[in-house]
Each structure stands twice: as structure tokens, then as C-alpha cells.
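Shift notes (night). Ran Alcohol acetyltransferase while the centrifuge was going.
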Amino acid sequence: MSTLSTRELSLHERFSITRRNCGFPHGLTFIFSYSSESSVPTYTQLCSRVEELQKHFPLLWARVIDSKTKNPKFQARQRPWRGEEIVSQATYTVKDDKDLEMERILYESSAGMDKLDDQLDPLWKISILRPQQEEQDSTGSRSYITVAGMHELVDGRGLMNLSLAVVDPGLDISQLPYETIDTIPLLEDTISLKPSLTHLLPVVLRAIVLPRLPYFIQNVFKEITPWPANLIKARPTESPFDLSLLAISPDLVSGLKKAGKSHNVPALHATLQIAYLVAIWAKFENELNPFVLGMATPLAERNPKLSHAYCTANYVSSYSETIVPSSSKSFWQTASELSTTLRSDAGRAAARYSMGMLAYIPDGEQDPSKKETNRPTGWESFFLQGAEGPTPYSIALNMSNLGYIKLPQGCDDAVWGQMASPFGPAFAVDVLGHEAGLKFVTIWRDGSAIDRTQVKEVETVFKKVLERLADEDWNDLTFGGLVA
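Came back to this:
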């Protein structure tokens, strides 16, 4: 009997396995919307494309073995999945508003990924969703296709590539590369993630050394804790996940791009991230003094020139910094500084160092008696200890922006989102742009640091800030002026 091919997991992929071991598997989902039934790819077509894609990308039919050890691996199964094992058909309840439909479908898809058995089930799923029978004749009823994957299998950009390969009839799968499991490189094998000492030592001191010192010594070295600090109503591990969808129009997007370019912010992302940060500040600034916000930005590292996988595996780094908002702070100066940093070699290096810090999590010797618990290795203990401590959030806002896609043939809208991790930020925002505008999916652990009412209030302020930034007649472009 031949030996089944294997591949080690990268640092970030192991982090996703850690989340699963802790009881919080992390799924990502793309949704494509169709207003015409005749435009929806058929069940047979999707099954056929699934089987063809697996010939190119064997991680799509792999499973993770040794998941409760310090050395988990992908291993090929005996055979690829049949199309009907990946693709399903279901119904949804029609709502008055398309965005509400997509929000609900996204929530149910993300929650549904929690129920997958990672040893018996595929790590990715596709669903065709149509209205319930009695609603199929409703005016304006729509169909949707969801493509969902576990984060250990795909990152955001990987799922985007996979989703478009699944649903876009104009994409010729035969022209995509062929890969083998044991030759798919890890991110850290192709890009140096090893932190410099100047990056490493402060983080080790703050995250690992200080918590073990007497309290009176900790106080000497502790920095100001960013919001929400200890203003926690419930542990994130004990709070349910929730999400909210916000859409902005193509005209507003055009106005924002024009305004950004005139203020040395050539890419839209920095404008969006600082605008959302301003909205958080406006809502919560009175809760702490001084008020400091941490923000993070995932950066795509997937690069075919480095033989990275086309749509599977994780190739991402994460840039983070803190900001002290104030009413007089210039919006465009702040956005320009972020934009410049994200495009710089120094910013990219800092993002890679942050991902490389995963290698320094205390792992210790594995205790066999803990193998079947939610703390089988040092990683699970480390992250659970942080999430269950008095200040579980160091980042207020993480904005994961996949940029602009061209909608597939027959599709008139699309959105992506993911599960809210208890080891993540207070607000996580997933962004996607296309011909129909921009879609923002905010995810959070409801009732921990924030709740749905507060998220909706932040979204309202965020949209007002965007509208004022795009308004050529609005003159007060300070943080305070934009939310007045």
C-alpha cells in the first residue's frame, strides 16, 4: 500500500487548528447573488468543476492529522471528494432586503462550518440556495451560491480564488496550475518571518515575561492598555458570534477614491480603516482616559513567483499599530501615514514579524493526559489564557480587505465574511469591492466588549464619515469635524 502524501502546517495554519482544538473552529464564506435563475450555475456544473479543481489542488481533498499535537499535518485522503459530497442544495427564507438575506445566509454558513467533522467531512463546502417553494414566485426573489472553507485550508484571498474558480464559467480551470501536497510551500519557508530583536523583545516582555512577574513589578513596565481594556462584560469565549452587513454605493466609492488621491492616499483601504476607527472613537471615547485604539491590517503574501499555492494554504501577514485619536487629529494626514506605511518595506517587514511571533509561543513538553482536552499543547493554553483574562482584546479593529473583484457572469452581488474568533479583535471587518459597490461585514463576539446595537451605531457613524469625506463641500476634515 502506497504512503499517503503529507505536508506540515504553517504557523498561521496551526493557529487555525489551535482555534479548533479550543472549541472555536474558524470558517470563511463567500456569497454570490443571482437575480435570474437562468444565470445560476447548475448543480451538475458545480459538481463537475469541484472534481476538476481537485485534480489541480490536492489540499482540497486532504485532512489534518495529528491535530492535537505540536506537529499537525495535512494528509491526502484515499481519494478526492465526489462533487455531490461538496455541493448541496437548500432553501432560504426571503427577506424584504437583499442585504438582510445575504447577512443571514452568511451567518448561517459561518455557523454551519462549526459543525464539520474535520476527519470525516470536507474542509470546504458549496451550497446553492433558492427561496422556499411557497416564496419562489415572489417578486424579486433571488438565488445564492455560498463557497465556504476552514481557515486552516484557505485564507481570505485563497478562498476568493477558489470561489471564483467554482462559480465563474469564464474561468478555464484547465489553465490553472497543478500542485502536489508535499511540495506546497509554507509561508515561512519562502518569506522570512523571523522578527528582529527590536520587534521581538518588547513583545516577549509584554506577552510572556510580564504576566509571570509580581504585580508591583508589572505596573512599572505596563503600557497604556488600548480600548476596550478591561471594560469587558463577558469573556469572548463565552459570548456568541454575530455579524452585520453594510453596503455603500459605487458613486460613494468613486467619491472616496477621488478624495483619497487628492490627499496622498492612493489606495482606498487606509481611508476605510481610519474612517471605521474614527467611528469607534466617536462611540466609545468617553469610556477611557487616555483613549488608545489598536488596529490591524492583514496583508496578502500569496505570490505565484514563490510557488505559493493558487487557492489553498495560508499566505498572509498582519500589520498592527496603536493610535491616540482626538477631535483635532487630521483625518487625511492619519490615513496618508497608514497608507504610506502599508506600502513601505518597513511596514511589510513589521507585518511579517508579527506573524513570525507565533513561533515564540511557549509550547513546552506535551502532556499526554491533556490530549483530549481543549488544551492539548502550549498554544491552546496560551490563547485561552489571554481570552479568559481581564483584558482579552489588544486590537479594537482588524480590517481584512480583499480589494476589488469582477463579478462572475450572471452574478450581480457578492460578499465575504468569517467567524468571529474569541482570540481576535473587538471589531473585525471583512471588505470586498466590485461593480455593485463595497460590502463591509463586521463580526464580533456579542455581549463581550460590544453588542449588536453598538455595532449598528458605529456603522451609522462610519457611513456618515465616508459621505463627508467624499463631499467636496465638507471642510472640517478633523476626527471631530467628521462626526459632529
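Residues 10 and 189 are 9 Å apart (CA to CA). The first helix runs from residue 11 to 21.
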